[in-house]
Amino acid sequence: MTLDRLSTCFLLVFCGLSALPPPILTAGEITGSIVDATSGEAIPARLSVSSADGKTWYLATSTGREGLAAAIPYDKRRGEKSVEVHTALSADPFLIADLPPGSYRLTATRGHEYRPAVVEITLPESGKLDHPVELKLDRWIHLAERGWFSGDVHCHLPSEGLKTVLLAADLNVTFPLAAWVTDTAHKPSENNKLKEAWPRPNLQFADNTHVFWPANTEYELFTREGEKHPLGAVLAIRHREPLDVTVPPVGPIIEKTRDQGALFDLDKHNWPWSMMLPAIGAADLFELTNNHVWETAFGVTNWYTEYIPDYMNIPVSDDGKIDERGWLDFGFQNWYALLNCGIRIAPSAGTGSGVHPVALGFGRVYVRMPEREFDFNEWVDGLKLGRSFVTTGPMLFLTANEKHPGSTVEWNPKSDEAKGSEEESDGIPVIVRVESEHPIESMELVVNGDLIPLEIGGSIGTKAAHSTMARVRVNIERSSWIAARVFTKTAEGRPRFAHTAPVWIQVEGKPLRPKLLEANYLLERVEAEIKRHENKLSKEALAEFEKAADYYREQKERAVDEK
Q1: Is 559 among the domain residues?
Q2: Are 146 and 463 in contact (CB under 8 A)?
Q3: How far apart are CA 375 and CA 548, in angstroms?
Q4: How far apart are CA 170 and CA 165, in angstroms?
Q5: Domain that holds residue 333
Q6: What does the alpha-carbon distance between residue 489 and residue 483 come to, in Å, rounded to a whole number?
Q7: Which of 479, 494, 512 is the last residue of a domain?
Q8: If you average pLDDT over residues 220-240, what whole number do you get?
Q9: Which of 178, 190, 173, 255 has the alpha carbon at shortest distance from 214?
Q10: Do residues 112 and 12 touch, judged by C-beta distance below 8 A?
């Protein structure tokens, strides 16, 4: 280097410092803990960390007990608005590292029974806070003490780390997939999209009331021998051995798994083949909240909306899109039609967490345990029987003639017990109770799919921010079912709901009958599939669609023409 050039370099250093990049600041960090607001004890929870403007997200790690502290990250995004980023943490201190100075929002959650804890923090230039952050989670309801235990039946998360996730979500039961195929020519035992070895079929315990069953399979069929030919999805949960059969037909997996205690969960009501499955006994569960229902922004607006019939009165845009409330209503009315056709398919909840931007257990199903003690097999039995309600937030309880959902009431509409009083009409006595952290927007009875609005009265004295109770009598002249549903609204205007399973009302000599519009709709769904699958599916597979069509034809013959 010449002297002139060396002089120039010194000149730049001493006189032109603005030409150099700014000094690199030490990366900052936030430490803290999440505790129960009442006891002050550290508890497992989920932690979401974002910049104050919500545009940048960060993950945490867990510190503390050697070999026991755990942090399970989750980061799924669909565009700019549908974002789910959090860390499931054990009951240990947390650390958020490598943070530039600035403002941050920390949100701790633990399922729906605790109020979220939110703090906003400004990290100074030094990169250090004066003291650790403490987030206090306040439990506003304790359903396990009342005998209700929660579950999520559709889980794509790996078994490794799942115990931490369960405890952080305060979710009692889940069923992680051990096998997943997407082509009709693929066997789960040979063409599994998941690369882990088939697990031992033993119940896994996070603790005595938080468990998962590791051996579960999803057939999510998009292609036929590599070519696009969508059918849909069905989950076999709580079986034991890997399945060595292709689907369709569905019959072979029913034969192989029923003896193992498996249940079949209908993933979404509007997959092309979905209405065939319940009619041939291949669906025990119907997801009222499914993997398109998220806490973050609703993102799947045009999923097979061509299957929405006019009679449901669901607004559909010119480009085939529906809003979140429309998606929920579509599922509800589809379920009502099946119930009215005599198919006792119980409600369930499945987030599909691990694939979609949604946390495990955001949509969950609570199953009632009459003895108020948790037992996994009893929980699964109760799920199948419909001793349950499904929720994305509010808690909903129903009795009809003092019977809970999943029960059957033998009813004589001419009996003395059916007679009301001067203050109330005749009919079966029904009680509905709601407890919610969000304002209650509507509360309704559902009787054979017909809605009966209920008055939203004053608070019933619970710790919930919003609560109400209604007592009514419902005139029942023929065999029926009675359920309840409630919608609440978040501060952002998003719908949150709960829906009970039915109480079945049996009137001797007067069977439950479907509405003609419903039977026609279900039949047309299946008949359209028969035409679409001609020369593409096997005779055995087509025979299952024909069997379903015959069932709906029988229902159509006995249907009531109510418009």
Answers
A1: yes
A2: no
A3: 35
A4: 8
A5: 140-391+516-563
A6: 21
A7: 512
A8: 96
A9: 178
A10: no
The whole-number pLDDT of residue 43 equals 98
Q: How many domains does the chain have?
A: 3
Residue type, 286: F
One-character DSSP codes across 242-263: PP---SSSSHHHHHHHHTTT-E
**Same domain, residue pair 310 and 359:** yes
| pLDDT at 107 exceeding the cut of 50 | yes
Same domain, 120 and 189: no
Q: What is the average pLDDT score of the chain?
A: 94
Structure-token pair, residue 519: 């039977």
CB 422 within 8 A of CB 438: no
Reported confidence tier of residue 6, pLDDT bands at 50, 70, 90: very low
Residue 5 belongs to some domain of the structure: no
Long-range contacts of 528-535 (CB under 8 A, 24+ apart): 529/272, 529/273, 529/276, 532/272
> Tens of pLDDT along 7-27?
333 333 333 333 333 443 568
d(CA 538, CA 5): 82
According to the model, what pLDDT value does residue 562 have? 75
The torsion angles phi and psi of 158, rounded to 5 degrees, stand at: -70, 155
Query: How far is Cα 486 from Cα 328, in angstroms, rounded to an integer?
Result: 12
Of the candidates 264, 153, 261, 282, the one whose C-alpha atom is nearest the C-alpha of residue 201 is 261
What is the DSSP secondary structure assignment for residue 342, as one 8-state letter? T
User: Does residue 4 lie in a domain region?
Assistant: no
User: Quick count: other Cβ atoms within 10 Å of Cβ 21?
Assistant: 5
Q: So what's the pLDDT on residue 423?
A: 77
Instruction: Give percent above pLDDT 90 in the chain.
Output: 90
Q: Indicate if the pLDDT at residue 3 is higher than 70.
A: no
Query: Residue 66 burial (CB < 10 Å; 0-12/13-18/19+)?
Result: exposed
What pLDDT score does 486 carry? 99
In this structure, the answer to whether residues 253 and 367 fall within a common structural domain is yes
- Strands of the sheet containing 114-115, edge to edge, are 61-62, 94-99, 28-36, 133-139, 114-115
Q: Say whether 33 sits in a helix, a strand or coil.
A: strand
User: Do 314 and 289 share a structural domain?
Assistant: yes
Predicted structure pTM score: 0.94
218-to-234, 241, 334, 371, 412 alpha-carbon distances in Å:
6, 14, 22, 32, 44
**C-alpha–C-alpha distance, residues 153 and 363, integer Å:** 10
CATH code of residue 33: 2.60.40.10
Strongest mean pLDDT among 17-31, 59-73, 426-440:
426-440
Distance of CA 253 to the CA centre of its chain: 25
In the structure encoding, which two tokens stand for residue 104, read together?
């941050």
Tokens 């020369």 found at: 535
Which amino acid, 348? S
